[in-house]
Amino acid sequence: MNTTRAEENYLKAIYRLTKTKKQVILPNLIAEKVQVNPASVVDMIKKLVRKELISYSRKEGAKLTDTGQRIALNIVRSHRLWEVFLVEKLEYSWSEIHVIAEQLEHIKHPDLVDKLDSFLDFPSFDPHGDPIPDKMGAYPISKKIFLSTLSIGAECKVISVSDDNTDFLNYLEKLGISIGTKIKILEKNAFDDSLSLQIEKKNIITVSRKFADSLYVI
Amino acid sequence: MNTTRAEENYLKAIYRLTKTKKQVILPNLIAEKVQVNPASVVDMIKKLVRKELISYSRKEGAKLTDTGQRIALNIVRSHRLWEVFLVEKLEYSWSEIHVIAEQLEHIKHPDLVDKLDSFLDFPSFDPHGDPIPDKMGAYPISKKIFLSTLSIGAECKVISVSDDNTDFLNYLEKLGISIGTKIKILEKNAFDDSLSLQIEKKNIITVSRKFADSLYVI
DNA sequence: CCAATTAATTAGACAAGCCTAATTAAATAA
DNA sequence: TTATTTAATTAGGCTTGTCTAATTAATTGG
Ligand SMILES: [Mn+2]
Ligand SMILES: [Mn+2]
Ligand SMILES: [Mn+2]
Ligand SMILES: [Mn+2]
Questions:
Q1: B144-163 pLDDT, tens per residue?
Q2: Could you please report the per-residue DSSP string of chain A?
Q3: Are A96 and B90 within 8 A, CB to CB?
Q4: Per-residue pLDDT averaged across A87-107, rounded?
Q5: Chain A residues in contact with chain B using a Cβ-Cβ cutoff of 8 Å
Q6: Residue A7 and residue A14: Cα distance in Å, rounded?
């Protein structure tokens, strides 16, 4: 199946939304993810239905077909492998890689992604802690949970982070938090659900509930 | 200056034509290089003139402005560095890399190309033997000549090869010729200008004048 | 159950890049 | 120097992916 860059971005968006949100995938939701007008999404939905990459109805929303799923999975795999490359080989920082991978994920050539995978020695997780599906589309397992689910006194390690919000990534970088950082829960404030955390047994910070709901730890 | 993929391909084409051909760069020539209809070239020429990336007149043909030249040079640099990456790190073969680099050369991010350059340890030539301009646009020097200019008995080493003709690259691969291969001129046939060559002191082959005019040696 | 709001869809437009089929200009050869 | 050929240009059209401004459904609060 021949897919354009735009089609691939929509397929990936639908795939990710299906994984994260537990709702029906409707135009508004996709529009927000792809950063595009809902009317444009309706156009693209028609095109993807025509190419049998998704099914769509007002009731069921957009759903990937097997082919669509396969393509989306390949893009995700490619994206995350390139992110590993950018951090480990080109020494990019955490927060810069997403936009570059957003372009690199669309480079097409037989074996390119597999060769990259092999060159990087088959990593299981990307620099944001997200799992990298293997050649067959199988995900490595990880038992990550939200920081917000831990109770006072618990210690944990940052394992994953939303890769598509630069503000969040920059904030983390400013706080000195990255994959592997050790965090201890000192206090939970009932008033606004904010948390006091100790970072790497050193500095103490206070973060919002929203923050704690965005950070995966183990 | 913000440039699209198509614009960059045209700028690169004009740049390469200016370097190789000693003629005025007119639509037909560009059309052939970019593999596009001459009418489309006329459209794009207008656009590039509007953006002040080239100048154009029927008499003078297309000429890169300073900005246009800078962009073209960066694309060439990016293309050749990615080719090195594909061969040295991903173990692609000689003849496969051009089409992939044709896509990779357009990936944009501050420092990406320089980081790649550094990761590859600042190579001077790409896998086809073509020089890689440095960050400032300066080319490394090489004193390559055409195989066809040598006389009988001469020995030489393959140093460079046209990277954009897959047929030629495949033919070379079949003959066991690549960068670094040693060649001795055994005979030159006045009748059709064909040459007898000995490859790596072993097998003897006969090649056409066109062939000998396409191979750079030292 | 109806009015108000929100979401999906349609209609119509536009930029980028390409094409084919005229048309015009230039070069060449008789 | 005129006729022929070749090359450049224009005219008009198409696809992809986007937009804004209607319009039509759905949902929901009163
Ligand atoms: Mn993308
Ligand atoms: Mn990521
Ligand atoms: Mn290209
Ligand atoms: Mn090359």
A1: 777 888 778 777 778 777 76
A2: ----HHHHHHHHHHHHHHHH--S-B-HHHHHHHHTS-HHHHHHHHHHHHHTTSEEEETTTEEEE-HHHHHHHHHHHHHHHHHHHHHHHTS---TTTHHHHHHHHTT---TTHHHHHHHHTT--SB-TTS-B---TTSPPPP---EEGGG--TT-EEEEEEE-TT-HHHHHHHHHHT--TT-EEEEEEE-TTT--EEEEETTS-EEEE-HHHHTTEEE-
A3: no
A4: 96
A5: 89-92, 96, 99-100, 103-104, 107-109, 112, 115-116, 119
A6: 11
**Domains, chain B, ranges and CATH?**
5-64 (1.10.10.10), 145-217 (2.30.30.90)
Pairing of strands A215-217, A155-161: antiparallel
Does the CB of B13 sit below 7 A from strand C?
Answer: no
Nearest CA in chain B to A114: B90
Tens digits of per-residue pLDDT, A191-216?
Answer: 777 888 888 777 888 888 878 887 87
Q: Model pTM?
A: 0.86
| pLDDT exceeds cutoff 80 at A163 | no
Ligand located closest to A126 CA: 2
